[in-house]
Amino acid sequence: MQLNLDVSTAVSYKSKSQKIRVMTESWVKETIFCVNCGNGLEQCKNNAPVKDFHCQKCGENYELKSKKNTLGKKIVDGAYSTMIERLQNSDNPNFFFLNYRDFRVNNFMVVPKHFFIPAHIEKRQALSASARRAGWTGCNILLHDIPTSGKIFYVKDGVVEDRRKVLEKWHKTMFLRNTGGGELKGWILDVMNCIDKLGKDTFSLDEIYHFEDILQSKHPNNSCIREKIRQQLQFLRDKGYVDFVSRGNYRLMQDN
Questions:
Q1: Residue 229 and residue 219 in contact, taking contact as beta carbons nearer than 8 Å
Q2: Handedness of CA 51, 27, 20, 111 (dihedral sign)
Q3: Dihedrals phi, psi of 73, to nearest 5 degrees
Q4: Nearest 5 degrees, angle CA 91-CA 170-CA 157?
């Protein structure tokens, strides 16, 4: 996989942001495969709503966000109200996140659309009355709130990931696409994040209970936190995300 951005694709543009947009979009078109089926991607027309790339074979859509130096914990996006509305629609695209240094791709990953919930979108302060778009309110995508399994790297720290493993990681969490949204998906993702924070493959129910106060603050109207934790672990076990080892002990299923 070629990681250098082709500067020749943007020679006719003057704006730095336009140059980067053209170079990164060209790189994705020539290099990246659809993470759902492995087919090549087609670039959408500039006026296509909320998507930059499309897979003709399986119909998956993707939006590209690029950032210099590091991806960081947050990615600036567009209007807050529009983003929240998009999360409710089935045609909401998956997100490609690309970071580059010296016109070379350092990290490139996809976050499946089924990992996004309103809690992952941060509302920014509205523009002041003196601004050209007074009152307009943008948003940030909170990457650090998305579970590790929802960040599927094609390129990580300058190293190209194995194509087969990229496809396997995508399909491992496709069960989330059919869980709906709102409170239910929020609980599943929160427990997945708790497992991530433990930082080990085998863990106990008591260790997940240590996050009880955090989960209570996220779900203040629920008085049965431990019961909800057990419920989500059972769901993740049924979907093959974790395995039951012994009473009160679980193992995070590894990619092949």
A1: no
A2: positive
A3: -90, -20
A4: 110
